Amino acid sequence: MKNIWLVMKAEIVKQRRHDYHSYFVWFSLLLWPVLGFLEVYYTYQPFSFAGRGGIQDSQDLLAFLGTGYMGYTCFWSMVQNAWSMSWEERQGGTLEMAFLTPANRLAMHYGKALGALIQEVWMFCCFCLFILFRTDTLRWDNLLLLPVFLGLLLLASTVWGGMVGALCLFSRDSSLIMDFLETPMNLFSGTRIPVSSFPLWARALSLLFPLTYCLQLIRMLLHIGEPGSQMLSSFLGLGLCMAAMIGITVWVTRRVERHNRETGELNFF
Fold first, then answer.
1. For residue 180, what are the domain limits?
2. Helical H runs in the chain?
């Protein structure tokens, strides 16, 4: 266990030194998510909600979008970081060297994901927590729920990031994975639109993303929207998604390493 933690720690430190080296970088990590949040909020604000998805007024909308964008920023930073780190390491020639080490492969994947998550989203999460306090969604009497849903996001985002990082080993140009995951996850997972407003085929697609279950659980804990959702089924769905993601990560990593032993290359195309 100690060796696994040391590998993850090494990946976190490596990313911090490589990517987060100026005040402008830190400022941009807060600026762009906030602008995206405000864009959607002021787009929806002029319209009447009439209770759709449990949203009654602008306060409910703020809380709904605050939790949605907090979750989406965590998950999307994983996709973006998996793409950028795989590209940088491949260009620098260090990706193949890393896979020659005896280090635990899952620890490497999850260390890369966790390093980016902590360093990229903590400022925007603070902004979203301010929104939740501002709308009286998160109050002093339910503040004990804060570690619960932050831990939920941390765990699910890390497992998601590990899987995406493993998938990025397949190709020299992983931008296809980035493009394939960004818009569907943003649209179907309930970040900006209640899942209950979708037609049946879109609801089925939303079940493929672990972010959908995370947002359902967080909103149920804070009594935001989606009043008919069942907590047990959301927990079960998230557990199945995470088990599937871990299985995919292990299978892909072993497949790529076997390919590397046979051909001398990590990527398939």
1. 2-263
2. 2-19, 23-44, 58-92, 94-98, 105-134, 146-167, 175-188, 200-206, 210-221, 231-263
